[in-house]
Every structure is written in structure tokens, then in C-alpha cells.
Amino acid sequence: MADLKRLYHDLVRFETELWAAVDTRLRTDCDLQLTWFEIMQLLGREPGRRVQDIATEFAISVGGTSKVVDRIVVAGFSRRIPNPQDGRSALLELTEVGQQKLAEAVPVFEDELALRFRSVLGEGELERLALNLRLLRTSAFSVEDRLSA
């Protein structure tokens, strides 16, 4: 029988170690912190997101997201544009400098992930891990629903 406490410990510690390793690599090689990179990656895929959208995507507070976005804007990597559907909010997009920084950082990010995952697990194991993590994440919503009922 699986030791769920040990599984929890290993999963949380691995996430913490993975975040630290990727963050260190991005800071060293690209002068970019992982928190910024995550948001910039989202804006690169889906420009025109609001701060609220970003907060929802990453399951973090709107206030915290707003502070990080402000710093990305001040650094010149992103800009706010008026939201034509809601004058109270702004839409975010990467600047040309932000697109260049993201293009520089993506290979570094991917290389670190390959080092941490592909050098240890085979492709079949990675596919099973990805599937199981998606299953756990999507079932978490049904667990929350059951708890609030």
C-alpha cells in the first residue's frame, strides 16, 4: 500500500526543488526570474489577458499577480492596453523586448526541464506521470465541491 504521507512529502519537495533549479537557471542564464517567465510565457501564448485572468490561471491572488505584472511592465517586457470591453481593466501583451527575452529564456527553461525529467525517466514514464498529474489536478475540483457540499 502506498504511503500517502511519503508521496505528499516527495511531491512537494520535488516541486520546491524543481522551482528553485529552474529559477536559478533562468536568473543565471537570462537575468529573468521564474515568476516573471511564467507570466510572460502565458502572455506570449495568449496576449490580451487581464491581471484577473493571470491570477486565475496560476491560482494565485489578484493582488500578488498585479504586483508581479507591475514589475514586468516597469522592466519593459509587457505593456497595458485599454480593454475595449471594460474600461476599468487593461489587457496585457508582451513588448518586443519582452518577446525577445522570452525567446531567449524558453530554450533555457526547456533544457532545465529535460535535465530534471528526461535524464531520469523514459518517455512512457513521463507520459504516465503527466497523465496522472492531470488526473489528480482535475479531480481536486470535484474533491473541493464535495467538501463544500
TrEMBL record:
PANTHER family, per the entry: TRANSCRIPTIONAL REGULATOR, MARR FAMILY, TRANSCRIPTIONAL REGULATORY PROTEIN-RELATED
Domain HTH marR-type positions: 4-138
InterPro entries named in the record: HTH_MarR-typ (IPR000835), MarR/SlyA-like (IPR039422), WH-like_DNA-bd_sf (IPR036388), WH_DNA-bd_sf (IPR036390)
Protein name (record): MarR family winged helix-turn-helix transcriptional regulator
Pfam family of the protein (one): MarR_2
